[in-house]
Specification:
The protein is α+β, with helices and mostly antiparallel strands. The chain is 40% helix and 24% strand. Strands 1, 2, 3, 4, 5, 6 and 7 form a seven-stranded mixed beta sheet that branches. It has a four-stranded antiparallel beta sheet with strand order 9-10-8-11. A hairpin with a 4-residue loop joins β3 and β4. α1 runs antiparallel to α3.
C-alpha cells in the first residue's frame, strides 16, 4: 500500500472564546502557516494489527497497544477504525509532524486528530467525509478539554473562517475585505482544559456576573461578524479590544498577554486580544498590511517567543457539508 499523508491547519479565535462553551456564538479562522501532518504507511515485517506511532516533536515512539484507551491518540485511532469497520488493520506506522505549538490556543490537539483520522482512513481505503472527521475529532477534544465548544475541530476540519454556535452548528463566513493578523505567542503554556474549568468555577460561584459577561461577548461576536462580512476592519478592531476587556474580567488574561496586547496597540494595531483559553498561549492583533512587520518586530522585542503573520482573503463563503 502506498503511504498516505494528510494535513490540517491551526486555528485562532477572533471573538467569543469561553462564552462559546455556554452556547454563545464565536468567530474563528484557520491559520495555514502552521499545521499538523500525519503520514500512514505500511510497517513491513510486523504482525497484522500492530500500529506504531512516531512523533519526534513530542518524543513519542510507541504502539497503540501500549497507550491507555483514553489517550487522545488512542481515541482518534480507535474512532477512525470503528468508523470504517476495520477491526484488525494491517501493520502500519503513523508518523506525526507538527509545527503547531502545544497548549497555545492554535488548536494543536484538534489538528493532529483531524490529520490522523484522515490519513488512517484514507490509507485503509475508506476516506471519510468532513462531517464524520469533524465528529470524530470532537470526541477527542472532549477528552482533551472536558467541555469543549467544538469550534477548534470544526474550523480545522473545514479550513474555513466560520461563525459557530454549538446549538446551531456553524456557518462559513463571507469575508468583505482582506485582513491581516499578527499572532504573538507568550511562551506560557496554558492547557485549555484548565482555563475552561476555572471559568466554570467562577460561573458557578457568581452566575449572574458570568452570564452578563457572556451575553456582552455574544453581542460583540454578532457585531464582529457584520464587520468582517462588511469589510470594516476598524470596527472589527474596536470589537476585539472590547472582547479583550471582557476576557480580562473573566480572569483568563495574564501579565504576559496584557503586555503583548498593549505592545501591539501601541505599535498601531487596529485591535488586539488574547485568543483561545488564555492565561498564556497566543494573542492576535488585527493590523494594516503596512504595519504588519513593525508590529511583529515590536511583539518580539516585548517577549513574544514566536510571531506569525496570517492573511484572510476576501472571498464569498463556500457551501460545505455539515450536520
Amino acid at each position: 500500500m502506498p503511504a498516505i499523508t494528510a494535513s490540517a491547519p491551526g486555528k485562532i479565535i477572533l471573538l467569543g472564546e469561553h462564552a462559546v462553551v455556554y452556547g454563545h456564538p464565536a468567530l474563528a479562522i484557520p491559520v495555514h502557516q502552521v499545521q499538523a501532518k500525519v503520514t500512514a504507511s505500511a510497517d513491513i515485517g510486523v504482525p497484522r494489527g500492530r500500529i506504531r506511532i512516531l512523533s519526534p516533536k513530542i518524543h513519542i515512539d510507541t504502539e497503540r497497544g501500549l497507550l491507555a484507551d483514553d489517550h487522545p491518540l488512542s481515541l482518534a485511532i480507535d474512532g477512525a477504525l470503528r468508523a470504517v469497520g476495520v477491526e484488525q488493520p494491517p501493520a502500519l506506522l503513523l508518523r506525526i509532524d507538527s509545527t503547531l505549538p502545544v497548549a497555545a490556543g492554535l488548536g494543536s490537539g484538534a489538528a493532529v486528530s483531524v490529520a490522523l483520522i484522515r490519513a488512517l482512513t484514507a490509507f485503509l481505503g475508506y476516506p471519510l467525509p468532513d462531517a464524520e472527521v469533524n465528529a470524530l475529532a470532537y470526541t477527542v477534544e472532549q477528552r482533551l478539554h472536558g467541555t469543549p465548544s467544538g469550534i477548534d475541530n470544526t474550523v480545522i476540519t473545514y479550513a474555513r473562517p466560520i461563525f459557530y454556535q454549538r446549538e446551531h452548528g456553524f456557518q462559513p463566513l463571507t469575508v468583505g475585505a482582506p485582513l491581516t493578523f499578527v499572532i504573538g505567542d507568550t511562551g506560557v503554556r496554558s492547557p485549555t482544559r484548565e482555563a475552561v474549568a476555572a471559568v466554570r468555577q467562577d460561573w458557578q460561584a457568581e452566575p449572574a456576573r458570568s452570564e452578563a459577561l457572556f451575553a456582552h461577548i455574544a453581542r460583540i461576536v454578532i457585531e464582529g461578524r457584520a464587520a468582517l462580512e462588511g469589510g470594516r476592519p476598524q470596527t472589527l478592531g474596536s470589537l476585539m479590544n472590547e472582547d479583550q476587556r471582557c476576557l480580562a474580567a473573566l480572569n483568563v488574561s495574564s501579565p504576559e498577554l496584557e503586555r503583548l496586547v498593549g505592545t501591539a496597540l501601541d505599535a498601531g494595531a487596529l485591535g488586539a486580544k488574547l485568543s483561545g483559553g488564555g492565561r498564556g498561549g497566543n494573542m492576535i492583533a488585527l493590523v494594516t498590511p503596512e504595519r504588519a512587520k513593525a508590529i511583529a518586530s515590536a511583539l518580539q522585542a516585548a517577549g513574544a517567543v514566536r510571531v506569525l503573520t496570517t492573511r484572510l482573503l476576501a472571498e464569498p463563503a463556500r457551501e460545505v457539508q455539515h450536520d
